[in-house]
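Researcher: Here's a chain I'd like modeled. Treat it as a single chain, no partners, no ligands.
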Amino acid sequence: MRAVRERLALSIDAPVIVVAGTNGKGSTCAFLDAMLGAAGYRVGLYTSPHLARYEERVRIAGAEVDAASLVRAFEAVEEARIAAEPPTPLTYFEFGTLAALVLFAAAKLDALVLEVGLGGRLDAVNLVDADVAVVTTVDLDHQDFLGEEE
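Model: Modeled as a single isolated chain. C-alpha cells:
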C-alpha cells in the first residue's frame, strides 16, 4: 500500500481520527462525523461495510461521494498499482481505502474519520498516521482470518 500511496503522491493535510474495536465503531464514526460537521468542519468519513451501495463507505462533508468520482479514484489507484513491475498486489479493502484517500486528499478537508476494517494494527487505514485513536469495545472476532488468541 505504501508503494501505491507514494506513486499517487497522496498527502493528507488534516487531523486523522481512527476508530477501532469490535462493536460500536460505526456509531462512533457517525457521531464524530456529525459532531465535527455541526461545528463547521469539512469531514471525510470512511466506514465499512456498506449496506446497499459501495458509495456509502465514503462521505465528504456529510454527503456520500457519487459513483463517478469513486470510479475515477479507483482508476487512479489501479494506474498507480500497475505502474511497477510486477504490479503491486492490493486487497479489496486496501484498494478501497486508497480510493477513499484519493478523494479525501482532493477535497481539502478539515478532518478525517477512518474506521478500521479488521485486523487492528495491520489494517489498511493505518497507512495514514492517526492524530487520535478511539478504541471501542474489543472482543475476539475474525479469528478465521486473524488467527487465534495468543
